[in-house]
C-alpha cells in the first residue's frame, strides 16, 4: 500500500466503520436511477449504495429491497422522502428487511419518524442544509449527516458545497460522521473534504452513466455530452409557491416546468387548491418528468436532473472502475501532501 493509499484508508476509517462498506463513498439516492442494479453494483464495488424510494408504494419498496438483497450481500441503505404520505409504512418495510441505514430527505424528520427508524436498530442519516439545522438534528439523535451543496443534481439548497463544508465540518464533525455531497467529480476533491473532517462523501451524478445503471441510453448520452454550465437550477416564478429548486440539464422540459408553476399559482390564486396540495402537485410533476427522461429516454421534455460535475462524466463504465478511479485520484492527492 502506498503512503497515499494508507492516508486515504485512515481518513475514511470512520465513515467505513459507520457504513459497514469498504470505502466511504455513498452512491446518493437518485429517483428512478438508484434501483436494485445500480445500488447492488455500488455496494458490491465496496461503496455504499442507497435505494431511492421516491414515490414508491410500500409494496414496491418491499420488492426493491428484496431484489437488491438478491444481488448483493453487502450493506446498502434506503432513502425515504419525508413528505411521502405513507412514510411510516415505508419505515416498517425497511425494518422488516433489517435495512441498516435509512436516509431521510426532504426536510426535518416528521414527529415520531426518528424513533420509528431507530427503534429497529437502523442508523438514521439526515441532510443538514445549514449549521443551525445540523446542530438541531444532532441534538435530536440523528446518527450521521449529509451536507449537500447547490452544485448537486436534483433538489438543491441555495448554498455551495465548499461554504457548507467550511461552516459545518469544523463545528460538528467530531460529534457525528458527516458526508459531503454536491459537485464531486474527482478524487482530489474527496481528499480535500476528508482533510477538512468529513467521514466520507456522497456522489450522484458520477454514477448515472455506470454500465450497471438502468438509465436510458439517451439519458446517459445527454450526461456524456453536457458540460458543467448546462446543469442549471430551475427558476421559481411565484414567491408563494414553495418550489425547491432542481438542478437539471436545460431543455424544453425546463420551460414546461415554468408553465406548470404558472398553472399551480393560478389555481392557488383562484382558491382551487391549498398550499400543501400545490407543493404536492409540483413534486408529482418532477417525479413524472424525471421518469420520462430516465426510463423512457425523453431527454427533451423530461427532467434530466444532473449536477455540475456532469462535465466530468466522459463515458459509460462499470461502477467498480468509477470507484477505483476516484480512490486512485484521492490517494495520489494525499501522497502529494508529503512533499
Ligand atoms: C437524477 C438525480 C435524482 C436524484 N434523486 C434524489 C432523490 O430522490 N432523493 C435524494 O435525497 N436525492 C436525490 N438526488 C441527489 C443525490 O442523492 C446526490 O446527493 C447528489 O446527486 C450529489 O451531488 P452530485 O450530483 O453533484 O454528485 C438526485 C440526484 C440526481 C442527479
TrEMBL record:
Coiled coil: none annotated. Its EC number is 1.13.12.-. It comes from Sphingomonas canadensis. InterPro entries: Aldolase_TIM, NMO. The keyword Nucleus does not apply. Keywords: Flavoprotein, FMN, Oxidoreductase. This is NAD(P)H-dependent flavin oxidoreductase. The keyword Oxidoreductase applies. GO terms for molecular function: oxidoreductase activity.
Amino acid at each position: 500500500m502506498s503512503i497515499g493509499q494508507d492516508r486515504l484508508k485512515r481518513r475514511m476509517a470512520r465513515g467505513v466503520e459507520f457504513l459497514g462498506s469498504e470505502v466511504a463513498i455513498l452512491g446518493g439516492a437518485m429517483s428512478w436511477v438508484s434501483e436494485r442494479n445500480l445500488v447492488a453494483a455500488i455496494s458490491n464495488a465496496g461503496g455504499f449504495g442507497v435505494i431511492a424510494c421516491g414515490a414508491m408504494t410500500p409494496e414496491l419498496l418491499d420488492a426493491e429491497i428484496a431484489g437488491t438483497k438478491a444481488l448483493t450481500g453487502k450493506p446498502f441503505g434506503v432513502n425515504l422522502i419525508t413528505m411521502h404520505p405513507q412514510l411510516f409504512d415505508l419505515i416498517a418495510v425497511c425494518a422488516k428487511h433489517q435495512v441498516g441505514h435509512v436516509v431521510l430527505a426532504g426536510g426535518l424528520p416528521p414527529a415520531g419518524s426518528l424513533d420509528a427508524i431507530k427503534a429497529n436498530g437502523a442508523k438514521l442519516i439526515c441532510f443538514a442544509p445549514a449549521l443551525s439545522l445540523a446542530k438541531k438534528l444532532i441534538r435530536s439523535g440523528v446518527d450521521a449527516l449529509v451536507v449537500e451543496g447547490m452544485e448537486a443534481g436534483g433538489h438543491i439548497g441555495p448554498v455551495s458545497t465548499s461554504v457548507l463544508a467550511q461552516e459545518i465540518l469544523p463545528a460538528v464533525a467530531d460529534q457525528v460522521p458527516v458526508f459531503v455531497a454536491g459537485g464531486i467529480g474527482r478524487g482530489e476533491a474527496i481528499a480535500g473534504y476528508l482533510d477538512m473532517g468529513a467521514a466520507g462523501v456522497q456522489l450522484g451524478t458520477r454514477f448515472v452513466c455506470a454500465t450497471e445503471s438502468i438509465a436510458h441510453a439517451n439519458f446517459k448520452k445527454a450526461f456524456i455530452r453536457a458540460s458543467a454550465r448546462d446543469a442549471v437550477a430551475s427558476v421559481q416564478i411565484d414567491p408563494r409557491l414553495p418550489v425547491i429548486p432542481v438542478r437539471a440539464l436545460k431543455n424544453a422540459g425546463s420551460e414546461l416546468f415554468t408553465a406548470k408553476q404558472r398553472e399551480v399559482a393560478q389555481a392557488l390564486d383562484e382558491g382551487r387548491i391549498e398550499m400543501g396540495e400545490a407543493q404536492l402537485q409540483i413534486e408529482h410533476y418532477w417525479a413524472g418528468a424525471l421518469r420520462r427522461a430516465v426510463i423512457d429516454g425523453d431527454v427533451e421534455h423530461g427532467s434530466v436532473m444532473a449536477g455540475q460535475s456532469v462535465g466530468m462524466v466522459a463515458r459509460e463504465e462499470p461502477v467498480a472502475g468509477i470507484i477505483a478511479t476516484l480512490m486512485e485520484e484521492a490517494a495520489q492527492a494525499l501522497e502529494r501532501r508529503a512533499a
